[in-house]
């Protein structure tokens, strides 16, 4: 169990650290199944878990675990176990995202490094997990927020906010009631300060410091990709102006 306390920190410094060498994400491994994916990793892992980071502008989707589940009330990225029946790790990510949020994945954009590890069970029943997380893009269908989709949600609802986040119209989310009870589109600053501007809610709890590090790295990668897209758009505009 891990609670990220409020930090007197600069958000820009955390999600935009000085450049440093990064290992290759190994994206080709995503086309293989669980066994093939594990074969390309260090030995000792028996299972694979996956998680999806979905952004709407500068806000990230987090879901809160149900009170009846393990780690009740804790916040996390949508995700779960990669099943042996999944044809690929990419399929595992898409399946888990849809099962937990009703959102459909279009493609994986980048892997969030490093992956995290954890164990479950004891003795002969112990399993060692490698958790791979990815920033993904959802389909245009999922991006379109429709009123009837919101009405069709289960008991899990979007947290009421004091700010104007609803005005940005993020995609509609349909939670799996057995696994999650609430969801939120959150900013990096709110994660760092461990507090969301909403009535009746205190600090947020996460499952371990590794999960917080993964979330903040997702924000950093998303901002980097947004800058790259902006630069590309500017180059296209200049090229078109040159032809005029």
Automatic annotation (TrEMBL):
<protein>
    <recommendedName>
        <fullName>Nudix hydrolase domain-containing protein</fullName>
    </recommendedName>
</protein>
<dbReference type="InterPro" id="IPR000086">
    <property type="entry name" value="NUDIX_hydrolase_dom"/>
</dbReference>
<dbReference type="InterPro" id="IPR015797">
    <property type="entry name" value="NUDIX_hydrolase-like_dom_sf"/>
</dbReference>
<feature type="domain" description="Nudix hydrolase">
    <location>
        <begin position="45"/>
        <end position="208"/>
    </location>
</feature>
<dbReference type="Pfam" id="PF00293">
    <property type="entry name" value="NUDIX"/>
</dbReference>
